[in-house]
Amino acid sequence: MVERFVAARGVDDPRVLAAMLEVPRHRFVPEPLRGKAYGDHSLPIGHGQTISQPSVVGLMTQRLGVQEGQKVLEIGTGSGYQAAVLSRLARSVYSLERIDELARAASSILRELGYQNVSVKAFDGTYGYPAAAPYDRILVTAGTHEIPETLLEQLAVGGRLVAPVGPADRQRIRVVRRRKTDFAREDGEEVVFVPLLGKFGRTSA
Fold first, then answer.
1. What's the whole-model pTM score?
2. CB 101 within 8 A of CB 47
3. Which of 65, 137, 167, 198 has the fewest CB atoms within 10 Å around its CB?
4. Which domain holds residue 85?
5. Which of 52, 55, 79, 95 is catalytic?
6. Which pLDDT does position 202 carry in this prediction?
7. pLDDT above 90 (res 205)
8. What is the count of structural domains for the chain?
């Protein structure tokens, strides 16, 4: 999967590729769909949510550029797969999921697989998680028209935020870098994500 789909999409960071080789994607997919776990497609995980296709996980993770020793905030835990990949790259990962059942399931499988540096919180991720801010990296795994100011405020100076930004039917991967007095923004590949719902996100799907 990693060689055929992820590296082929242009992901060449050896740490990202190694992390994705290490994480068993099938464990984060509902059992009836596990035969499809290593194809390059998203899969439903219930509650109208999906596990993203591996090539997009690789692209988003590479754009995030996580370094050893860094603290990462993820908005949208979903299955927990992306958090598991991030856990192999960062010192600690805080992951927020608005759907209680998904948060509990992801937390359980992450613990079972031994990813002890991931903390899953069940609440509206558009608020961020001020208790552990600031973050060196923030990854938003749901599509939004604009990145919530609440998240930008929790990004450390010199930090990086990656999010799919655009209309509901298509977005582009936006990389935001926080400088001392402002933010630099750059848009990349086109992607399609489920909507970022919440107080400071989209009001409905």
1. 0.96
2. yes
3. 167
4. 2-191
5. 52
6. 74
7. no
8. 1
